Amino acid sequence: MVDSTLAPGILREGLRVYAIGDVHGCLDRLVSLHWAITADLKANPVAESVLIHMGDYVDRGPDSAGVVWLLTGTVAPPVTRRVDLMGNHEVMMLEALNGGNQRAAESWLDNGGFSTLESYHVPSSASPAAWAEAIPLAHRQWLKTRELLHPEDGYLFVHAGIRPGRAISRQRPEDLLWIRDPFLSSHDRHPLVIVHGHTPRPAPDIQPNRIGIDTGAVMGGALTCLVLEKDRMRFLTA
Asked: Which pLDDT tens digit goes with each residue over 84-114?
């Protein structure tokens, strides 16, 4: 078993959470992590297990289409439950695919949308109006129905973070999907320890009030999976 360290939050006895950071089209790394989770569960059985993907499945990387194909399919680690959160890149993609908004289309392309279209074999000459037709309806519907946040005991899992000082029930979607500061610089104790992605760091960003697990897989870093159990944490990487 990989060595564990003390975590800033606590999970109930018998529960293990696996949380995977921003994938950004890195299909091979995601598959490797799924295999690592499967092996970890086999080596270290637990009564209840949850797999949480932290959003940003698409853009910038080589195979966004493959990532979405994988996540909309039936092959996955044998966990008890799975949660796939919404990221800001999914929002940009959906706004661009909605058609009729040139600014949304340009913003998506500027933030890695070209690589996503290429992974769906959409020619560069295609107009924005044709983009949605090239992407399977099941993929578009799956992207639209992702959750914005997910609590598990002492933790809250969300793509970007929360607005400090605001109740969880009053958080705005734009903050959950896009926020950096004042969330990242805040030392306030939140109602729950926040596990988030969105802001890449060379290594997991572990603070008393939050854990950041975007380690820049698409920029040459690792794809990271945080493993939480009771009052301990450890990491799997690919």
From this structure: 999 999 999 999 999 878 999 999 999 999 9
Has residue 1 got a pLDDT over 60? no
> What φ, ψ does residue 69 adopt, rounded to 5°?
-55, -45
Whichever domain contains 104, its CATH number is: 3.60.21.10
- Specify whether the CB–CB gap between 23 and 67 falls below 8 A: yes
Q: How far is CA 223 from the centre of its chain?
A: 11
pLDDT value for 3: 86
Strands (E), 72-177: 81-84, 149-152, 155-158
The residue written with tokens 């959950």 in the block is: 176
The 3-state DSSP class for residue 132 equals helix
In angstroms, the CA 36 to CA 238 distance is 9
182 DSSP 8-state letter? B
As a whole number of angstroms, the longest Cα–Cα distance in the chain is 55
Q: Convert the pLDDT of each residue in 109-135 to its tens digit.
A: 999 999 999 999 998 789 988 999 999
Q: Give me the helix-helix angle, 27-43 and 64-72, nearest 10°.
A: 40
What are phi and psi for residue 93, nearest 5 degrees?
-65, -45
Specify the number of domains making up the chain. 1
| Domain hosting residue 41, numbered range | 16-231
Q: Which of 49, 54, 143 is nearest to 93 (CA)?
A: 143
Interatomic CA distance for residues 11 and 180, integer angstroms: 26
